[in-house]
Design goal:
about 1250 residues, alpha/beta, seven-stranded parallel sheet, globular
Length: about 1250
């Protein structure tokens, strides 16, 4: 079906030869339009463009992959209509190398191609985030230690002023914050130098001329304007027929004074006038009026007074002279901070260079250094090359770009030469990545300067929404008309920014009457439930609403998503409550992994192995499955040596020889024999003594065994990689099998397997050994780089989803629950020692060390209020993103204090709440409820107090009871013969009881391992009969493995061969080729696959390039290349088939079947004959061992292929061994 585009979309697709900014609202189909623009440019019949002449920058790798896939599908579709079109054939080939990627992928390709221009070693790697954090702290510690040793007075003053009694962590955090913030600028050093300029004011006139002071005065004007609006509303209430008219004189006086105040300019004048402002008392004359309106006027006027007094207290408590003095005193502090930050950045760069490592920030800055000359600000020769190559630079999600990315993209576009070829698409209302230092003002600068009409710099608004029902759009529009403006949110939400229905939804009369799609607000009061956990109460209300919508409105669980600010503190509670309520819930939490018991136990175990003198970890490990000590056992050991540490007590307990106890036991037994038969009491005492002695002996043996196990693992530490130590722990203790048998065993096992993968990733960093691995984990916890627990639930299951608003960006759902509407915004950054501003620098809190006083320096106060405005603007945009995810229905839930009153004022169409009202909002409800109650909005509001909450649960219990009663009644009516048949079926026993303990779907690898174990068992029997002596070979004479890591090496080799371009290999074979050209080919393939994100960099580092070259020189690889050129090479093909269970289990029944699944590495078809090949990286003694090990696996592969390709003959089954660098024939004829 042909896509119908709107007029605005048509313009976006077809307008060229200009800079084009597309403001694409939520659901406006921007991705589809962007892809169509690319396709139209590539398939233009008159001026076709090669796909690799476009630079397309996306925000995520997933978005880039989706775009590449869509473009590829469109090209293939065009080729089907015109198969002989050479240009389209060329595009299909070029697509793999096209620059459709994230800015980091593009920057990486720039660096790889021009590394020599910045003196970078071409063998660099991208550092792991945890490794980078560890290096941060190591370098910072060196910088601080050198500063202490040098003892500069300025540094010591900084320590006295901002350090605390115990440590200098505050100052370290300030340095790291400054360094991190500086990295978001094209030239960090220049930004740092500008930070000091702010503190060089010496006169009041100079302070008034500062840009930050002018912006402060502008903000004051906006605030006073908002207070004037609010006072005008008070005046309107007073003027009403039943209003408190006696208050008019005071209200008029307020308006006059606010108008006078609004005309202020300069700090001194503002301070003078705001100091003169006074509110006259309201008239006490008796008057006949509406008492509610009278109270309303008092309340609203008190709010105005409160806001004004707050401004006076926060910003005008000190004279301008005092403020200037504080600024001047802060100057040496800021100079020292800048100096330390520069030292840190310099040494950090050196440390990374020593390790031949770069981080993600380096990717942007190195690319910028290659493309732009820092001194002149002009483009380099490299930039001009890219400029000539790219006909157009296209940027998706432009609202989330930062200054560095903007500089890079500008350099490779034609801007410097007057060529307008920038295409930018985004939506500033959806800019929600400020924590990643995104700068939405870049988008707005262009939006304000570009024209709507035909020009060199043009903007187009896409405001048709093809996602949501009109009810969702009307609700969203009405909310944002009143709360989003340029002063907070970066854009005025008006008719031009609003959403308009573009999708066609049919609605039945019943749905209209019941309001099935009407947005709902569930406002829960804090006294609603007895539970002290507010989140749990909200979760139960949400669960009840979801159940109601499933039962009454016909929605499915999978239609619904629950959106929250952050999963931390929410996901665990929601999962628990929904499980209790019987509602399936899926969440992909990014936290909780390290708090899982099995992972915590492993961390404690490693801590003990690294240093057993840690009492708490030691006690934890002993009390775990590794030791199986009871609390009584641990207490007994501890009390035997009360003066020593717990480690010393355990050591001493182990060291005491058991002989003394044995003698004591033997002596007691002798006493028992000597007791006269009549002395029963004495006999019992001696028996108790023997039992106690035996218990002590058992504990001693258990402790000795535990200690021996611990020492055995500890001996491996000096020369064993961490991931191998963990593997040994899993294998020798059976810990994996143990956790698998616990409730939730699959997830627990997956968590431990993730832990092993994490340790393998650590081994790829510049740090080595167990001590630094523990630091590696601690850094993840410190910087909240936690993982979610291993996810085992399919995304296709009929379950409610729980995710963050950030995670939902770009997605859509039939029903959206936005929970946490009453949760207060996180404004903790306003309390940090430093507050940053993108244009003006950093604000410090002034510290008077001599008088032990803290004061807020004016720049910091101003930066704080501007920062708060930006933080709240981000919250506004988050709210917009959340509301616009819904296709059919919105439900907003939140908990508030029952005393909180909203509403009280009628809002005109598109009338914005005053800045003072919006900036004092503490949660989403503080913005939404005044609008919902003050504007004519179609939505349902439910107040859930204690009575309503209890009634809700009574309804649930009643429904469950009625359901059971209904079932019992139906059962009573059932025919006895049917009941007898049901009982027979319920008591039926499976004829193959042993199979109940086995998997009914197994992988080929599992079958292989089973057969291998059987062979090993047989070999063990033979070895017991006759042991053959094996000559000792010293370790240094043994052949060294080319790449350590076993399975990880095999995975890397398989991944490369699964992605490698064999068609290009065939093109190489058609020319003259040598060993050198094949080695170059392998290097290029690795680089291309890594840049495209198809081969992770850690895998690339594990590849054996020599092994790959030898394989590609083989006759087998040449056959594969020929087959690939003919489209007959197939790789990584999964299969599933049913086979007799006896093929898998020896004692299985004759009629049993079992499902076998696997993935065939590679096969190819030539002249109706099929060849099957499996790659093997195993280290074995001879090829025959590979044949016996994999015979059953390959025969199953062959059987699966024979079933699928029944017209083809399986001509050969082959193994390629990277150890022997040769092809081994399993079946058939093979000639190299």
């Amino acid at each position: 079906m042909e896509m119908k585009w709107t007029q605005e979309q048509e313009q976006v697709i077809h307008l060229h030869n200009r800079n084009l900014l597309v403001s694409a609202a939520a659901g406006s189909g921007k991705t589809a339009v962007l892809v169509e623009r690319i396709i139209q440019m590539v398939t233009d019949p008159e001026h076709p463009l090669d796909i690799d002449r476009l630079l397309v920058v996306t925000f995520t790798n997933a978005a880039a992959a989706e775009m590449r896939e869509r473009v590829g599908a469109a090209i293939e579709k065009a080729l089907q209509s015109d198969p002989d079109n050479v240009h389209l054939q060329r595009q299909s080939t070029l697509l793999h190398n096209a620059q459709i990627s994230t800015i980091h992928r593009f920057g990486l390709s720039v660096i790889r191609n021009h590394f020599y221009e910045i003196d970078l070693d071409p063998g660099f790697r991208i550092g792991d985030e945890r490794e980078i954090r560890m290096l941060w702290e190591d370098v910072l510690r060196e910088v601080m230690e050198d500063a202490y040793e040098e003892g500069r007075e300025r540094f010591l003053h900084l320590i006295r002023t901002y350090g605390n009694v115990k440590n200098d962590m505050n100052i370290c955090q300030m340095i790291l914050s400054m360094a991190d913030y500086a990295q978001s600028y094209p030239w960090p050093k220049k930004w740092l130098e500008d930070c000091v300029v702010l503190y060089r004011c010496t006169t009041m006139e100079e302070m008034d001329r500062q840009p930050w002071m002018q912006e402060f005065c502008h903000w004051l004007s906006d605030m006073i304007h908002g207070l004037q609006q609010q006072t005008e509303r008070i005046r309107q209430i007073v003027l009403e027929d039943d209003g408190p008219s006696a208050y008019m004189e005071a209200v008029e006086s307020d308006l006059t004074q606010l108008e006078y105040l609004a005309g202020s300019s300069g700090y001194a004048q503002w301070q003078q006038r705001i100091g003169q402002m006074s509110f006259s008392a309201l008239s006490r004359k008796k008057q006949v009026c509406d008492p509610e309106k009278k109270e309303k006027v008092k309340t609203l006027r008190d709010e105005v007074k409160k806001h004004l007094n707050g401004i006076k207290k926060d910003y005008f408590s000190y004279s301008q002279e005092e403020q200037l003095e504080m600024i001047m005193e802060e100057r040496p502090i800021m100079e020292e901070l800048v100096y330390l930050t520069e030292q840190f950045l310099g040494r950090f760069a050196e440390a990374k260079a020593d390790r031949n490592m770069i981080d993600f920030s380096d990717i942007e800055h190195f690319a910028l250094r290659i493309l732009v000359d820092e001194e002149t600000g002009k483009s380099t020769a490299a930039a001009k090359e890219y400029r000539e190559k790219f006909a157009e630079v296209m940027v998706d999600e432009y609202q989330d770009s930062n200054y560095v990315q903007e500089a890079i993209l500008t350099a490779v576009s034609g801007q410097e030469e007057g060529k307008n070829n920038l295409f930018m698409v985004g939506d500033v209302k959806q800019s929600i990545y400020r924590f990643r230092l995104a700068r939405p003002e870049l988008f707005m600068e262009k939006y304000d300067s570009y024209t709507n009409t035909d020009s060199d710099c043009q903007k187009i608004d896409l405001h048709m929404n093809f996602r949501s029902r009109p009810q969702v759009l009307e609700f969203t529009n009405e909310i944002f008309y009143h709360i989003m403006d340029r002063d907070m949110g970066n854009i005025r939400y008006d008719a031009a920014a609003a959403l308009y229905p573009g999708a066609s939804y049919v609605e039945s009369q019943e749905e209209i009457d019941t309001g099935r799609f009407t947005p709902e607000i569930l406002r829960i009061t804090e006294d609603a439930a007895d539970s002290a956990d507010k989140v749990e109460t909200e979760a139960r209300v949400t669960a009840a609403k979801i159940r109601e919508m499933v039962q009454k409105d016909g929605f499915a669980y999978k239609d619904m998503v629950i959106l929250v600010h952050a999963l931390k503190g929410w996901s665990e509670t929601f999962v628990k409550v929904f499980s209790q309520e019987g509602i399936p819930l899926v969440t992909s939490s990014k936290s909780g992994y390290f708090s899982a018991v099995e992972v915590q136990t492993m961390i404690q175990m490693l801590k003990v192995l690294n240093n057993p003198r840690q009492d708490i970890p030691l006690a934890g490990v002993m009390g775990s499955v590794f030791g199986n000590f009871t609390p009584e056992d641990l207490a007994l050991i501890r009390t035997m040596y009360p003066e020593q540490s717990f480690y010393e007590a355990v050591s001493a307990f182990v060291a005491v020889c058991g002989n003394a106890k044995i003698i004591e036991k033997t002596s007691s037994e002798q006493e028992l024999q000597n007791v006269e038969e009549g002395s029963e009491t004495e006999r019992i005492k001696i028996q108790e003594k023997i039992a106690k002695s035996k218990k002590l002996q058992d504990l001693q043996k258990k402790t000795a065994d535990f200690w021996k196990m611990l020492q055995g693992f500890r001996q491996q530490i000096p020369d064993t990689p961490v991931h191998e130590i963990i593997q040994h722990i899993y294998r020798d203790t059976g810990y994996l099998d143990y956790v698998s048998a616990l409730p939730g065993g699959d997830r627990r096992r997956a968590n431990l397997e993730m832990f092993l993968e994490l340790s393998a990733s650590y081994e790829q960093t510049s740090y080595q050994g167990l001590f630094d691995f523990i630091r590696y984990i601690e850094q993840m916890l410190k910087y909240e780089l936690d993982y979610g627990e291993a996810e085992l639930v399919s995304e296709q299951e009929n379950a409610v989803r729980l995710m963050t608003i950030h995670k939902s960006k770009g997605l859509e759902f039939p029903v959206v629950f936005l929970c946490g509407m009453g949760k207060e915004f996180n404004l903790m950054s306003l309390k940090d020692p430093l507050i940053f501003h993108p244009l003006y620098g950093a604000g410090l809190r002034w510290m008077d060390v001599q008088n032990h006083q803290k004061r807020t320096c004016l720049p910091r106060q101003i930066f704080g209020l501007l920062e708060k405005r930006e933080l709240l603007g981000e919250e506004l945009r988050l709210l917009y993103v959340a509301l616009t995810r819904a296709r059919e229905k919105l439900v907003l839930t939140g908990m508030t204090d029952a005393k909180t009153l909203y509403g009280g004022q009628q809002l005109k169409t598109e009338e914005t709440l005053s800045l003072s009202e919006r900036i004092n909002g503490k949660c989403f409800f503080d913005w939404v409820m005044p609008v919902v109650l003050g504007a004519d909005m179609k939505c349902r509001i439910s107040l859930i107090d204690q009575d309503a909450y209890q009634h809700m649960h009574q309804d649930v219990e009643k429904q469950e009871f009625l359901k059971k009663q209904e079932l019992l009644l139906e059962l009573a009516k059932t025919d006895p013969a049917v009941i007898e048949q049901m009982e027979e079926q319920m008591h039926w026993e499976y004829p193959y009881p042993k199979s109940r303990m086995r998997k009914q779907k197994v992988s080929v690898s599992e079958i292989k391992r089973q057969y291998q174990k059987m062979q090993e068992d047989d070999a063990d029997k033979l070895l017991k009969e006759e042991t053959e002596s094996v000559p000792y070979v010293p370790a240094f004479l043994q052949e060294e493995e080319e790449v350590s890591g076993g399975a990880l090496f095999g995975t890397a080799m398989h991944r490369f061969l699964a992605c490698m371009d064999f068609v290009k290999l065939q093109e190489l074979f058609r020319k003259e080729h040598t060993e050198a050209t094949i080695r170059t080919f392998v290097a290029e393939q690795i680089r291309e696959l890594t840049d495209a994100g198809r081969l992770p960099s850690e895998m690339a580092g594990r590849l054996s390039r020599t092994g790959l070259c030898r394989f590609l020189e083989s006759g087998t690889a040449k056959e594969m290349a020929v087959a690939a050129a003919d489209g007959e090479l197939f790789r990584e093909k999964p299969f599933m088939m049913s086979v007799p269970a006896a093929q898998v289990w020896e004692d299985a029944g004759d009629k049993e079947q079992v499902l076998v699944q696997g993935i065939v590495d590679v096969f190819w078809i030539r002249d109706g004959k099929l060849s099957l090949l499996d790659y093997k990286t195993d280290r074995v003694s001879d090829p025959g061992e590979l044949l016996s090990r994999y015979d059953i696996q390959l025969k199953l592969y062959a059987e699966a292929l024979a079933r699928v390709f029944d017209c083809c003959e399986i001509s050969q089954i082959l193994i390629y061994s990277f150890q022997f660098q040769n092809t081994i024939v399993v079946e058939g004829d093979k000639k190299e």
